[in-house]
Amino acid sequence: MYLDMHSHSVSSDDSRATVEQYLKWIGVLRKRGHVVDGIVLTEHRKFDFDKDYSALASQYGVVVLKGSELDTRYGHVLVYGVTEPLTREIDFSNVAMDTRELLKAARQHDAYAVPAHPGRFGIGLTEYIQQGETFDDVRIVERLNGGSRKGENERAWELCDNMGYLGVGGSDAHLTSHIGTCLTKFPTDISTEAELVEALLSEQFQPVWLKDATNGTTGE
Amino acid sequence: MPYFEDVELGDEIGPLQTEATDYGVLEFCQVWDNRGPSRFTDQAMAEESRLPGPIVPGIMSMGIMARLLTDWAGTEALKDLDIVFRQPVPHHKPLTIAATVTDTRQEDGENLVECDILMTGAEGERYVGGKAIVVLPSKP
Amino acid sequence: MATELDYDRSLHDKEHEAGPFEVTESQIQAFSRGIAETNPIYTDPAAAKAQGFRAIVAPPTFCTIMVRQVSLSDINLKFNGAPMGGGMHAGQRVQSRAPIMAGDALTASSHLKDVYAKTGRSGTMVFIVWETTFRNQDGTVVADVQESFVRRG
């Protein structure tokens, strides 16, 4: 199963894509021979408990899951399987929250937190590790990010190799046509946020570029 | 000018290749009433703003990007242009503006085509990005 | 410790009015030159009239150069107790509602829409968003412009 683990809809301040537009675009990608089974909406600094995308998901045949991307003291962190108890313990709008506390709290509340774009200049986890910080609770990072600049995915890759981290992939899409540019390949089907957390805990996945997620009929 | 019925999701618009010169930026700043040295026209002031050199004003980049769409769809077709300035745009460097159709729909009696639009550099730098909505006529 | 964003929140309810500003032929022509726009509807009165307009038409993002004519209040922004000044342009939106032509007299009305903090490659940033509505001499709304500025800590 191929999931885009990092995307933003108009619910995030800097995105210009609606969820329906993402799903329509996935239809375009599928016609071109790519395989994109689902997306995770990781909105900035919030979790949209009140938003229900099940009708759209059913209409377009795409799994739509919800998560968050939070700003923390040591970079951005993707959170999957967000629960109400987690949002009561952690203030999602706090841009200087303690990263280590977030990682622990996520696990305590059945969620899973993954440092985003760890190779990003100025704000990736790599920067802080190079400054001597340690993060004992990190096991998975976003190894492949579709919004990264030249050199940043390479730095993330190197971090994973050096630290033994596992990696996921996500587009970091803020525009419709950027959805699906990077994905995570799982061996099992995932249809709920809880199943996604279980899949992450299984440690059986890998990040892939869209060009490598095909059904054999693309021109690439 | 294309007809609404001929446009499909995934269609590419452009590219438009251009660059912003020192003189062009200066002229733009004058009509903008932003006269006098600034980070847009002066090296020292750009460096004070932690920039490597003078940059193109955001609204000038926006005007250039709008050209791609008015050239394609007509002078009155552009209804909405919504962009984010992601990286400073340098003078005298190749700039590419291109758009991708991401949605077509009819709303309040109008044929709307929505697209992602990007201004990128020679190394793929994403300087400015956003979305636009144009109105197209139906086939007669 | 949560971050603290402090600014003059009363500005969300305050309209800043400006104008009228006359839109001149030479302004439209200079703007068009600045963005390397060569379509004669924007520069040649005869070409514009042949298309049914009474004068040359302004390119669709023309009114963005007029937003700075509106004197906006200082929001007195403080982040974690420290003043944050300066700022760079972060984003812009123009919704064109009706053509703007040479000879039009535009008025502008602006208000503070949003202020929020986030982090990125250059550290902690605060975004300030203003909305401006432009009307012509007939009271017709010709454009809505949204501008976002970023200040860095």
Descriptive report:
The complex is a heterotrimer of chains A (220), B (140) and C (153). Chain A is of the alpha/beta class and 220 residues long. Chain A is built from seven helices and nine strands; from the N terminus they run E-H-E-H-E-E-H-H-E-H-E-H-E-E-H-E. Helices cover 23% and strands 35% of the residues of chain B. Chain B is built from three helices and five strands, in the order βαααββββ. Chain B has a five-stranded antiparallel β-sheet with strand order 1-3-4-5-2, covered by helices on one side. The longest helix of chain B has 16 residues, at 58-73. With 153 residues, chain C is mainly β. Chain C has a single domain (5-22, 62-152), classed as Thiol Ester Dehydrase, Chain A. Helices cover 10% and strands 41% of the residues of chain C. Chain C has helices spanning 25-34, 45-50; strands at residues 5-6, 16-22, 78-79, 82-83, 88-96, 105-120, 123-135, 141-152. In chain C, strand 3 (78-79) and strand 4 (82-83) form a beta hairpin. The longest helix of chain C has 10 residues, at 25-34. The interface between B and C is medium-sized, with 32 and 33 residues. Strand 2 of chain B pairs antiparallel with strand 5 of chain C, so a sheet runs across the interface.
What attributes characterize this protein structure?
A: about 220 residues; alpha/beta; TIM Barrel; two-stranded parallel ribbon; about 30% helix; globular; B: about 140 residues; alpha+beta; Thiol Ester Dehydrase, Chain A; 2 domains; 5-stranded antiparallel beta sheet; about 25% helix; elongated
CATH architectural arrangement of chain C:
Roll
Question: What is the H/E order of chain A?
Answer: EHEHEEHHEHEHEEHE
The arrangement of helices and strands of chain C along the chain is EEHHEEEEEE
- The strands making up the biggest β-sheet of chain C line up spatially as 2-6-7-8-5
Distance between the termini of chain A: 20 Å
Query: Distance between termini of chain C?
Result: 17 Å
- The low-pLDDT segments of chain A are none
Domain unit count of chain A: 1
Which CATH first-tier class of chain A would you pick? Alpha Beta
Backbone structural class of chain C = mainly beta
CATH class of chain C: Alpha Beta
Determine the structural class of chain A based on helices, strands and strand pairing. alpha/beta
